[in-house]
């Protein structure tokens, strides 16, 4: 397990990270989400040792990260970092060798990644001549070339079309199945919703929520219900224990106080006319994010 424990960092007089702590567990995809400037890239740079924390530490299997462990991390930096004039294949070859892999192993890994990431036709072209989406795939191949033990990926899905997202997801899932912990940042909450096992939400340099996706979705709000009636559902406003979340004519989403009874609300709705739909709803990740990252 990769662990950040009380990591703080300031730039000048600006505190950018406030005692950031979270775990990235083996075999799980951990989505790291937050608005622009929330502190995701800074946290990842600290994991990689590109930046030093002012306080706190990063550990792997309980030990403070060493250079040797960091060499076993596959990192996709925000600023990217492939050589524009070098071909994808040469680049992978160079990076693999730099990480100490033998010629055959590098070649095998490179061909597999090129194929899996559908880069075959472009693998001989200089990176600068590839579309942005293909450059992004090449970046992912570069992060994976040395069969890393840990993956730290800064916005790996930005600029990818939905099919490419699926391709990359498959490749990453394969790594988690082998037990690799994967930390990835993303602005695309729909992708995170689909992909992550665990979620870390950061806002203003503070962790606002962290844990299993299902757990967060289930536990982060009061029980929520959706009701659809024939007329206007505005009367819900005056129902005891009901807190309206959204009202759109005949359709309402509301939260219920812990001591309130959902069947009483249903009975109240039926006493006013037909009820078309009634039931509990789970908040989406986007809703949780808006709630906790305010
Ligand atoms: N080298 C630096 N010097 C000064 N301030 C910095 C530096 N690096 C980052 N910051 C500031 O730290 C804060 C956090 O930035 P960071 O890049 O970690 O956020 P982020 O969550 O990755 O955002 P984004 O999604 O926009 O990439 C920002 O306010 C940023 O301006």
From TrEMBL:
The keyword Cell inner membrane does not apply. Residues 2-229 form the ABC transporter domain. This is ABC transporter ATP-binding protein. It comes from the Bacteria. SMART domains: AAA. Keywords: ATP-binding, Nucleotide-binding, Transport. Belongs to the ABC transporter superfamily. Gene3D superfamilies: P-loop containing nucleotide triphosphate hydrolases (3.40.50.300). GO terms for molecular function: ATP binding; ATP hydrolysis activity. InterPro entries: AAA+_ATPase (IPR003593), ABC_transporter-like_ATP-bd (IPR003439), ABC_transporter-like_CS (IPR017871), DrrA1/2-like_C (IPR025302), P-loop_NTPase (IPR027417). PROSITE patterns: ABC_TRANSPORTER_1, ABC_TRANSPORTER_2. Pfam families: ABC_tran (PF00005), DrrA1-3_C (PF13732).
């Amino acid at each position: 397990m990769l662990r950040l424990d009380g990591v703080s960092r300031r730039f000048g007089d600006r505190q950018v990270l406030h005692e950031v702590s979270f775990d990235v567990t083996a075999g799980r995809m951990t989505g790291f989400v937050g608005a622009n400037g929330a502190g995701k890239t800074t946290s990842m740079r600290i994991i990689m040792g590109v930046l030093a924390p002012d306080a706190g530490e990063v550990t792997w299997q309980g030990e403070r990260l060493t250079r040797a462990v960091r060499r076993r991390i596959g990192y996709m930096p925000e600023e990217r970092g492939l050589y524009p004039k070098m071909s994808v294949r040469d680049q992978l070859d160079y990076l693999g060798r730099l990480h100490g892999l033998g010629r055959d192993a590098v070649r095998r890994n490179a061909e597999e990644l090129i194929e899996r990431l559908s880069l075959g036709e472009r693998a001989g072209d200089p990176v600068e001549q590839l579309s942005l989406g293909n450059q992004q795939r090449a970046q992912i191949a570069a992060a994976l070339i040395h069969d890393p033990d840990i993956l730290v990926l800064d916005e790996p899905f930005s600029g990818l079309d939905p099919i490419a997202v699926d391709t990359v997801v498959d490749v990453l899932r394969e790594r988690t199945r082998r037990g690799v912990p994967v930390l990835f940042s993303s602005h695309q909450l729909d992708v995170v919703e689909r992909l992550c096992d665990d979620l870390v939400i950061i806002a203003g340099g503070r962790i606002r929520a962290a844990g299993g996706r299902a757990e967060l979705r289930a536990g982060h709000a009061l029980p929520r219900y959706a009701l659809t009636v024939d007329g206007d559902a505005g009367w819900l406003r005056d129902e005891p224990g009901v807190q309206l979340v959204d009202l759109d004519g005949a359709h309402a989403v509301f939260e219920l106080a812990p001591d309130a009874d959902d069947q009483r609300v249903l009975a109240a709705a039926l006493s006013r006319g037909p009820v078309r739909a009634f039931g509990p709803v789970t908040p989406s990740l986007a809703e949780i994010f808006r709630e906790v990252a305010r």
